[in-house]
Design a protein that fits this description.
This protein is of the alpha+beta class. About 20% of the residues lie in helices and about 40% in strands.
């Protein structure tokens, strides 16, 4: 009797456990609905933030417009839209790109991004000619220099990739056009070394040390011509042969036509930024 009772209790407990509600996995439709709702919420917040930042820019432009006749003007201040976060504002008027024609640069630095807007003087008002937005975590600096060797100063934003392995220093380039007011579209280069006197850009591609390529591009007005890629020759097992290949195509390109094979790396490449990364020396 005791044995039967014990067994009966055991079975009863098993039934209770079996009858407990099992967690129900979400259907694809439910997951998709939640994803879209979250996306809409993020987009809504981004729109609100964008409107706030637009107001900050508009107020800064009003301050600058009052000083439009000045050859030089500088002002820095901090505002807090809706008391949520600080935005550092920098207003600068100066002959940044061309003499006797002051330009206006407004920078807005907020927790997530750096916003840079450049204006040229058009009679009695400022006309926006360039706008750049960079993630605060990746932003390094921005500078003004002649990049393509045409004698005009260009705008350069330098930043460093936040994700992924390997060397990843980037430069976004905006070329000043001949009218000395407008700028070209943006050009992006990875690990570049600029040579304005040659109108050439050399740089190291993205990849592991000792296993990537060097590129060589040349400015052609507001376009870029690919001159060559340089990389190590390897055998069937992927081991380096000691030879260097110079090709019009990248190393992984199919049906590539090699230009020539060399015994050593040409001297023009040995002084570029990231050359040690290309050779892999010191990273073994």
């Amino acid at each position: 009797m005791m044995l039967l009772l014990s067994c009966g209790q055991t079975n009863e407990n098993k039934n209770k456990l079996t009858n407990k509600k099992q967690p129900v996995s979400k259907t694809f439709e439910q997951r998709e609905k939640e994803r879209l709702e979250k996306k809409a919420e993020i987009e809504k917040q981004e729109k609100i933030d964008s409107l706030k930042l637009d107001k900050v820019l508009s107020d800064a432009l009003k301050i600058a417009s009052l000083e439009i006749k000045q050859k030089k003007f500088q002002k820095k201040y901090i505002v807090r839209p809706d008391k949520e976060y600080d935005v550092q504002v920098e207003i600068n008027i100066d002959d940044f790109f061309t003499k006797n024609n002051p330009q206006l640069i407004i920078r807005r630095l907020e927790p997530n991004h750096v916003h840079i807007d450049i204006y040229s003087k058009d009679r009695n008002r400022f006309k926006k000619v360039l706008s750049h937005k960079e993630w605060s975590m990746t932003y390094v600096n921005d500078t003004i220099r002649d990049i393509n060797g045409d004698g005009l100063k260009d705008f350069v934003v330098n930043w460093y990739g936040a994700t992924g392995c390997c060397l990843k220093a980037f430069s976004d380039i905006y070329l000043l056009r001949k009218d000395k007011k407008e700028f070209s579209k943006g050009f992006e280069f990875i690990n570049p070394t600029f040579s304005p006197e040659e109108k050439v850009i050399r740089g190291v591609q993205y990849g592991h040390p000792g296993q990537t390529e060097i590129y060589k591009f040349k400015w052609n007005g507001e376009a870029i011509d690919t001159l060559e890629y340089l990389y190590y020759d390897t055998d069937e097992e992927g081991k380096k042969t000691g030879k260097i290949i110079i090709s019009k195509k990248r190393s992984y390109s199919k049906n590539k036509k090699d230009i020539k094979t060399l015994n050593s790396i040409p001297a023009e490449y040995t002084k570029i930024e990231g050359f040690d990364w290309f050779t892999g020396k010191g990273y073994e």
